[in-house]
Amino acid sequence: MNLTDIPARYYFDTSIFGGYFDVEFSNETRILFNYVTEGKIICLVSDLIAKELISAPSRVSALFNNLPGQFKESLLVTQEITILAEEYINQKVVGKTNRDDCIHIATATIYHANALVSWNFKHIVNSNRIQGYNHVNSLHGLPEISIKSPREII
């Protein structure tokens, strides 16, 4: 196996799972999930996503639960992650109501995801916000996080 055979590790936020069934986003999202089942992508998911999907429609939570285990990496939200998420808020990248979005970004950063993938264009896949998240990461000696929509991945 050479380095180009190593699958990319992408953190999927909750919007990706819902996007699978959304008319506007389903085509790209289904291709993205095909990449996971083909082993081209390792899907990183946090315990926050698992918690958020408890109240999701059953078909959305089933999509999450049925991802092939060998292509899914479960991540724990740690104290280091919650502190970094709070710093995004303190630095006014987003407001307090977007704490869970910040936890997703901090989780992807701390676990060195190749990218965070989201359909949330207001608070996550937004060039001004991305610049803000990465500024905070830089202040803390952390790497930049790449944030993309599925359209940019496929």
Index terms:
five-stranded parallel β-sheet; alpha/beta; single chain; 8 helices; 154 residues; Rossmann fold
The Cα radius of gyration reads: 15 Å
Largest sheet, in brief, is:
5 strands, parallel
Strand-pairing-aware structural class: alpha/beta
Could you name the CATH topology? Rossmann fold
Mean pLDDT across all amino acids: 93
Figure out the total of helices: 8
| Terminal CA distance | 23 Å
Describe this structure in words.
The protein is α/β, with parallel strands linked by helices and 154 residues long. It has a single domain (3-153), classed as 5'-nuclease (Rossmann fold, 3-Layer(aba) Sandwich). 48% of the residues lie in helices and 13% in strands. It has eight helices and five strands; from the N terminus they run βααβααβααβαβα. The protein has helices spanning 14-19, 26-37, 47-53, 58-65, 79-90, 99-110, 127-139, 150-153; strands spanning 8-12, 41-46, 72-75, 115-117, 147-148. It has a five-stranded parallel sheet, sandwiched between helices. The longest helix has 13 residues, at 127-139.
Question: SSE layout and pairings?
Answer:
Layout: E1 8-12, H1 14-19, H2 26-37, E2 41-46, H3 47-53, H4 58-65, E3 72-75, H5 79-90, H6 99-110, E4 115-117, H7 127-139, E5 147-148, H8 150-153
Parallel strand pairs: 1-2, 1-4, 2-3, 4-5
Helix pairs in contact: 5-6
